[in-house]
Amino acid sequence: DKAKTDFSVKPHAMSHIKKVIGVVSGKGGVGKSMVTSLLAVTMSKKGYKCGILDADITGPSIPKAFGVKDKIMSNGEAMLPVYSEGGVPIISINLLLQNETDPVVWRGPVIANTVKQFWSDVIWGDLDYLFIDMPPGTGDVPLTVFQSLPVDAIVVVTSPQELVSMIVAKAVKMAELMKIPVAGLVENMSYFHCPDNGKDYQIFGESHIDEVAGRYGLPVLARIPIDPALAAACDEGRIEEFAGSCMDDAVMMLEDR
Ligand code: ADP
Mean pLDDT over residues 105-115, rounded? Predict the structure, then answer.
C-alpha cells in the first residue's frame, strides 16, 4: 500500500492551520486557479483567515489573479508568504523566480520537494483555511503532493467541455487511495447569462454534472457562469474586488463539513 500519507512533512512551528482544502482538475485551463482564488476570497469576506498555496508549479496563476508581485522573503530556513491587498497570504513559485516568465523545467521529484517546502518552511501564521491550487491531473506530482500534505478534503473543478464522468471517477479514485474525502464538485463555465435578453445559454453543451454527482453521492458546490467580468478580474489582478456570489453556497457547504 504505497499510497499512504507521509506525515513526515511537518508544518513550520509558527504555522497553525485548521483546514487544508485541495482544489483539483482533470486538465489545465478549466478554471481551477480561479475557483481556488474565489473560494479564498469568499471565505475571507466571511471573516475566516485564508491562505493559498499555489502548487500548480508549471502553470502558476494565483499571483496574477491577486495582483501580487513582491518576492517571497527567505532567510534560508523559513519563508514568508506574500500578502495580497486583502490580507491573503500567498505562496507560489512565481514569487520566487527572478522573472515570472521563466519556465519551470524541473522534473517531478524536484517539483514535489518544492511543494513540500511550501508547507514545511513557510510561516503561514494562524489560518482557518489553506487552499491548495493542485497541479492538474492525477499524475506523479499531484499524487506526491497529496501524500506529503495533510489535505482534509478536495474540491473537483470541471467544465462542460470535458468528459466529466471520467475526470470525476479518476479524482474520486485518487482521493479514496489517499483516504481524503471529496467535498464536492464545481462546474465552471456552465453557461452564459445574456444580459440583453436574460436567457442562459449552455455554450459548451449540456451539463452532466448532476448525473455524475449523483452517481458518486457528491454535492455540486457551485455552477459558475462564463463571465467576462470574472476573466477581467483574474487577468487584471483584481479577483478580491469581484463581487459575484457564485461561491456563497460552496463556502456554506465547506463550512458545514
Ligand atoms: P486552470 O487553473 O484550470 O488552468 P485558470 O483558473 O487559470 O485555469 O483559468 C484559465 C483562464 O480562463 C483564465 O484566464 C481565467 O480568467 C479564465 N476563466 C476561468 N473561469 C472563467 C469564467 N467562469 N468566466 C470567464 N473566464 C474564466
Answer: 81
> Where exactly are the structural domains of the chain?
15-255
Q: What is the pLDDT of residue 7?
A: 56
Instruction: Assign a CATH topology to domain 15-255.
Output: Rossmann fold (3.40.50)
Q: How far apart are the first and last CA of the chain?
A: 28
- What cell does 191 get? 453557461
H or E segment at 184? strand 182-188
Closest Cα to atom 19, ligand 1: which residue? 31
> CA-CA distance, 195 to 109, in Å (whole number)?
48
| Shortest-distance Cα residue to atom 10 of ligand 1 | 29
Is ipTM beyond 0.95? yes
Q: How far is the CA of 188 from the centre of ligand 1 (A)?
A: 8
Name, in order, each residue with C-beta under 8 angstroms of 154's C-beta and a sequence gap of 6 or more: 21, 22, 23, 24, 134, 171, 175, 180, 181, 182, 183
